[in-house]
Design a protein that fits this description.
Layout (H helix, E strand, L loop, with lengths): L1 H15 L16 E5 L6 H17 L3 E5 L6 H8 L7 E3 L4 H5 L2
Parallel strand pairs: 1-2, 1-3
């Protein structure tokens, strides 16, 4: 009986080490967010991105910037997003061409 109790305590102690510790969630957005449009200003993607950025700024209380990075059929802006830090502060908006058509 003592051995069984000791084994149960040992197993319980070992299993508590497997439980992940809860991480404190970071508030998002804590800094300005950039929305990259891979087309020149004035195009359909740009016209759609600007009211979205304005609405998100008002809703979340943090600045959402629209950055136009046109060139190479949308590849320049798309590459900028894919090479940015994966922290959620650089967002893409585009049509399907840079993703589905261009190499």
């Amino acid at each position: 009986m003592r051995v069984l109790r000791a084994m149960a305590i040992l197993c319980g102690a070992l299993l508590t080490g497997l439980v992940p510790f809860s991480a404190t969630a970071q508030e998002w957005p804590a800094k300005p967010v950039t929305i990259v449009v891979p087309w020149p200003p004035g195009g359909p993607s740009d016209i759609a991105a600007r009211p979205i950025a304005k609405g998100l700024t008002e809703l979340l209380g943090q600045t959402f910037l629209v950055e136009n990075r046109g060139g190479a059929g949308g590849n320049v802006g798309t590459a900028a997003v894919t090479k940015s830090a994966p922290d959620g502060y650089t967002l893409p908006t585009t049509s399907g061409a840079p993703i589905g058509v261009n190499p």
